[in-house]
Structures are given as structure tokens and as C-alpha cells.
């Protein structure tokens, strides 16, 4: 194979590839030998069909298959041997080809620019640790305790009131006749929430254990059996128990129910959880600072085809007129994102950063935990969309690069209070909103929390979205 590289203009290259017909014929002969044992033709024993017969019947198809493979392999080799990293799909122009002929073609390719990495040791960013006060931890534990249902039986002669839990069996009829779904055992209702059938709860206020109460209610419009929807039903309810919610005692048993060893361990876990909630948001600010500093690195030329692709992504869903008006701004955003992506990729390659399948699966599991009840849907999405999984790989790759940069750069370490953390996050959120850089920032992911979580406090931040780098 003979390869000649011609520089057309800047990053654009033409690579001429020549493979003589003797070599091409060798590839064809190898393919004939490969398929000979798989072809069954009348009058010939398996594996004994003459090459000339195969050539007459299958020659064109075999040549097309051989040509495709040779073009793929030789193009890859030509680019690798000449250390050319293509920015986008190379274009092939066949000059000479055919059975018993030389193969001559031209690869037209835009090359990724050479990136000179500045010393990442000079990158500066803020590294926060949030000091969580004991009162904040206690407050969060009380919120968790308040969310726990702790119902205890009340005296048999006491009447049910709103917010009590009533447990009952029921038998319902419509016009004196049974109907599908008209019977229930050990049904539980917290009075006042109106979660069963509209108006049902109110009629149970005042019942006592062992009472029998007839409740009249209209079945809902969305009742599963449509023929009974909006029909008035009579429910004969046998009251099995009435329970009142009692305040949960915060002690070692309470802690153990939440998966902690004891109350001291629970406080430690909750304190760490609160800290992590703020740390995750503040770490994203650190990432933004690092990416902003990387924007100051130099890249001599940005490939036009990559800019065009990125502009198309940024203008997706816009009218042609609006896209045209925003074109100049989009081009600047595109250049910035591509530049940062190229630099991160170069850093990743120089430091031999790889992403393992285990890391991808761990990220998928994280996504599943963030969407409780929709795990199956999320898993099917990734199974049916390889591009989404590839994007996830790119995200993990990028995070590993940023994490390594952090270990080499210059952190400005600060210990701050929860109030200071909230102020910093709020100010950043306001700045982000004022600048309205929607195309510069992807949607935020929800913070991952543990079993004891009741709600997530910190304001969420958006982060700079560089052009995704190569997925290793």
C-alpha cells in the first residue's frame, strides 16, 4: 500500500492511497477460499466448487465485500500511520477500482487540531467543605421522624377523628346488587386525606372499633369497570381498628429502623448526607471554574465541520429565521465548547484515562436511583438507545478528567457554614439566570441521597457543557 498525504488548507488533508492489483487479487483469492466450504452447488461436492464457477456466480458480490473491507482497513491504517485524528467522518473518492485492477482512492479528511496543554497545575478553583451544625442535623432527623407513620390503637370506646387511621372490611352494592371490586378486606384510610372515594372519609369520622357503618358514595369516573363509573354505591363497613398517630421517639430503635447502628451513628450519617448535598452542588461550581480556566488555553484552529455540527445542535427546534438571527452567538458558543472538549480529550489521552463497563453500569444504577418507580423505563431507554449510553460514557470520561485535574491543580480550600453555602449557590443561580446561557448549560441531575433523606436543601446549579470528548 502506498500512501501520500497532501495538505490542502489548514486542517484539511487529502490522502492518496494506492493498492496494486496483485494485492487486491490476493484478497479476492483469500475470500474465495473462505466461502468455498460454505457454498453448495448442484454437481459439486461441498468445498470442491472451482474458483471460476464461484467467480461467475458470486464474483460481483464478493468483490463488493472485499472492497468495503479493504477501504475500511486501509483508511484506518493510513490515518493511524500518519497520526491523523479525523474531525468527523472522512470522505472517500474512488479513482480506480474493479476486479483484476489496481485500487486507487483519495481520503478527504479534516484533521483535529494539535492541542498544546498548558500546565494544569496553574488552574485555580474553590474547594469548599461545609460545616454542618448539630442543630441542623437534629432538625433534619426531626423532619424524618415526623414523616414516619406511627399509629397506635386508641381505646375501643373512643371515636375516630380526622388524621386517625381507620382499618375496615367492606361489602358494597349498587341498587342492592354486588359488583366487581365491591369488596375489600383490611382497607386502611387516614381520615381527612380523601384518597379513597371522594367524600368517603368524612362519613367514617365518629366510628368506633367493632362499629358497622353504611357509607354512601359515588364511584369515580375512572372506575376500572366502566359500566359502574359514576354509579352511587352503598358500602357496609365493619370497623376493625381505629389508630392515632403518635410522635416518633427519636432513640436507638428509631435509628436502627432507618439502617443506622444507633442514634449517634444516625446523626453522623445525616450530617454527612447534608454535607454531601451541599458539596455536590459546590463541586459543580468548581467544575465550572476549571472549565472557564481551560477556555484560556490555546487551540490554533477549530474545524469548520465541527462548528457546523454544533450550531445545528444548538438551533434544534428553532425556526429558520430565529436560528439565522442567533447564528453568530451559536458559532461563538460552539467554538468554546469544541475547544474545551478538545483540550479535555487531549488531557485524557495523555493521562491514559479509560472508562470501564463497571463504571458505566454504576452510572446507569445512579440514574435508576434518581427516578424511583421508573427504573424499568430508564433501563429500557438505555438498552434501546446506544447513543444515550455512549453519551453517558462521555459524561463519565469527562468527570474522570475533571477529577484528575483537581488533584493536579491549585485548590483554594475554604470551610464555610451552611448559610454561606446557600448564599454562594443562590448567587451563582442568579448570575446564571441573568446571563440566560441556556445553550451553554445542560439540565441539572438530581442529587443522589440515602435512605434517611426527606428532602434536598441546596439550590441546584447548572454547569458548563463542553463538546463531548472522545469516549475511551
Can you walk me through this structure?
Strands 6, 7, 8, 9 and 10 form a five-stranded antiparallel β-sheet that branches. Strands 1-2-4-3 form a four-stranded antiparallel β-sheet. Strands 5-11 form a two-stranded parallel sheet. Helices cover 43% and strands 20% of the residues. The protein contains eleven helices and eleven strands. It has three domains: 2-110, Alpha-Beta Plaits (2-Layer Sandwich); 120-137 and 260-440, Trigger factor, domain 2 (Orthogonal Bundle), CATH 1.10.3120; 149-245, Chitinase A, domain 3 (Roll). With 472 residues, the protein is an alpha+beta fold.
Kindly name the structural category. alpha+beta
Order of helices and strands: EEHHEEEHEEEEEHHHHHHHEH
Span of the ends, CA to CA: 29 Å
Mean pLDDT: 84
CATH structural architecture of the largest domain: Orthogonal Bundle
Task: Please report the total strand number as a whole number.
Answer: 11
Give the proportion of residues in helices: 40-55%
The major beta sheet can be summarized as:
5 strands, antiparallel
So what's the overall shape? extended
What's this, in brief?
With 472 residues, this protein is α+β, with helices and mostly antiparallel strands. The protein has helices spanning 21-36, 51-81, 134-147, 252-257, 263-294, 304-314, 320-350, 357-369, 375-384, 386-408, 418-435, and strands at 2-9, 12-19, 91-96, 103-110, 124-131, 151-153, 165-174, 177-190, 212-218, 232-245, 410-417. It has 3 domains: 2-110, Alpha-Beta Plaits; 120-137 and 260-440, Trigger factor, domain 2, CATH 1.10.3120.10; 149-245, Chitinase A, domain 3.
Amino acid at each position: 500500500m502506498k500512501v501520500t498525504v497532501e495538505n490542502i488548507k489548514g486542517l484539511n488533508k487529502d490522502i492518496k492511497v494506492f493498492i496494486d492489483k496483485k494485492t487486491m487479487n490476493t484478497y479476492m483469492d483469500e475470500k474465495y477460499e473462505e466461502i468455498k466450504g460454505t457454498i453448495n452447488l448442484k454437481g459439486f461436492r461441498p468445498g470442491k466448487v472451482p474458483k471460476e464457477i464461484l467467480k461467475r456466480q458470486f464474483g460481483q458480490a464478493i468483490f463488493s465485500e472485499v472492497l468495503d473491507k479493504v477501504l475500511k482497513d486501509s483508511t484506518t491504517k493510513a490515518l493511524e500511520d500518519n497520526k491523523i485524528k479525523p474531525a468527523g467522518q472522512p470522505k472517500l473518492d474512488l479513482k480506480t477500482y474493479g476486479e483484476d485492477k489496481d485500487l486507487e482512492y483519495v481520503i478527504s479528511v479534516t484533521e483535529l487540531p494539535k492541542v498544546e496543554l498548558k500546565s494544569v497545575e496553574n488552574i485555580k478553583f474553590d474547594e469548599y467543605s461545609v460545616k454542618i451544625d448539630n442543630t441542623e442535623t437534629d432538625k433534619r432527623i426531626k423532619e424524618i421522624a415526623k414523616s414516619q407513620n406511627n399509629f397506635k390503637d386508641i381505646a375501643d370506646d373512643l371515636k375516630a377523628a380526622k388524621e386517625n387511621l381507620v382499618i375496615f372490611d367492606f361489602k358494597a352494592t349498587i341498587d342492592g346488587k354486588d359488583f366487581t371490586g365491591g369488596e375489600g378486606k383490611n382497607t386502611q384510610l387516614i381520615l381527612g386525606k380523601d384518597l379513597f372515594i371522594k367524600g368517603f372519609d368524612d362519613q367514617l369520622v365518629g366510628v368506633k372499633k367493632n362499629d358497622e357503618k353504611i357509607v354512601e358514595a359515588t364511584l369515580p369516573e375512572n372506575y376500572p369497570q366502566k359500566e359502574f363509573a359514576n354509579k352511587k354505591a352503598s358500602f357496609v363497613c365493619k370497623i376493625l381498628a381505629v389508630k392515632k398517630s403518635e410522635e416518633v421517639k427519636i432513640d436507638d430503635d428509631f435509628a436502627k429502623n432507618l439502617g443506622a447502628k444507633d442514634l449517634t451513628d444516625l446523626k453522623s450519617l445525616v450530617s454527612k448526607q447534608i454535607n454531601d448535598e451541599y458539596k455536590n452542588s459546590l463541586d459543580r461550581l468548581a467544575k465550572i471554574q476549571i472549565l472557564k480556566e481551560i477556555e484560556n488555553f490555546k487551540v490554533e484552529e477549530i474545524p469548520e465541520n465541527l462548528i457546523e455540527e454544533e450550531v445545528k445542535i444548538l438551533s434544534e427546534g428553532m425556526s429558520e429565521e430565529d436560528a439565522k438571527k442567533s447564528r453568530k452567538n451559536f458559532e461563538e458558543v460552539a467554538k468554546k465548547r469544541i475547544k474545551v472538549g478538545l483540550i479535555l480529550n487531549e488531557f485524557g489521552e495523555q493521562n491514559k484515562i479509560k472508562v470501564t463497563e463497571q463504571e458505566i453500569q454504576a452510572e446507569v444504577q445512579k440514574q435508576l436511583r434518581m427516578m424511583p418507580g421508573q427504573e424499568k423505563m430508564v433501563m429500557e431507554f438505555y438498552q434501546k438507545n446506544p447513543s444515550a449510553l455512549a453519551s453517558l460514557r462521555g459524561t463519565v470520561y469527562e468527570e474522570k478528567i475533571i477529577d484528575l485535574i483537581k488533584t493536579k491543580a491549585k485548590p483554594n480550600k475554604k470551610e464555610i457554614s451552611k448559610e454561606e453555602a446557600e448564599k454562594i449557590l443562590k448567587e451563582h443561580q442568579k448570575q446564571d439566570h441573568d446571563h440566560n446561557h441556556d445553550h451553554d448549560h445542560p439540565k441539572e441531575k438530581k442529587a443522589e441521597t440515602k435512605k434517611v433523606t426527606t428532602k434536598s436543601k441546596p439550590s441546584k446549579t447548572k454547569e458548563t457543557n463542553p463538546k463531548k470528548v472522545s469516549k475511551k
